[in-house]
Amino acid sequence: xxxxxxxxxxxxxxxxxxxxxxxxxxxxxxxxxxxxxxxxxxxxxxxxxxxxxxxxxxxxxxxxxxxxxxxxxxxxxxxxxxxxxxxxxxxxxxxxxxxxxxxxxxxxxxxxxxxxxxxxxxxxxxxxxxxxxxxxxxxxxxxxxxxxxxxxxxxxxxxxxxxxxxxxxxxxxxxxxxxxxxxxxxxxxxxxxxxxxxxxxxxxxxxxxxxxxxxxxxxxxxx
Length: 223
Description:
Largest sheet: 2 strands, antiparallel
Number of helices: 9
Mean pLDDT: 90
Oligomer: single chain
Radius of gyration: 18 Å
Distance between the termini: 55 Å
Shape: globular
Structural class: mainly alpha
Strand order of the largest sheet: 1-2
Low-confidence stretches: 1-13
Strand content: under 5%
Number of strands: 2
């Protein structure tokens, strides 16, 4: 299959609702590259495709996956068809050489693969935690954005039952942002400044509360 066709496939996913078939096609093309772990250019294309597959399966209509939108277990099982091979490949790369110096869509694709590893699995949580300082180094090098590190650090912390340091996740309680998920708004803002994030949590709280109210209203039983 030509590179032109692959590019058209990825672009096409941006203009229509993707399917599991689209995601699996992207995954197969990533695997067909058979990249050497030391070949940065090839790995860049591979993780661009793997990242696109990761997003495609998550943007698929739940019904097309045989699930309802509220059946998280069913959705997770469908996503695992993409996540499991991605996990195996990223683990192999990291064990061999750490985090590869990717850029652009490739860097974001590799980060998406990492971010979507299952939180409940101690092995994958360990992998994400080992990757955290490497992701911060990629932010310092300008290959990823501060938000990428913050979101990974927050997910890792909440998986351990700790407070999220940057407040990028939005757990709700009683129709409002659950501030027990952080230690202190001012402390979170200071950490965000330290890593170069543009938007402070204090500037986002009204939006967080608004979104939580919307979600609460959408699941409230009708009289």
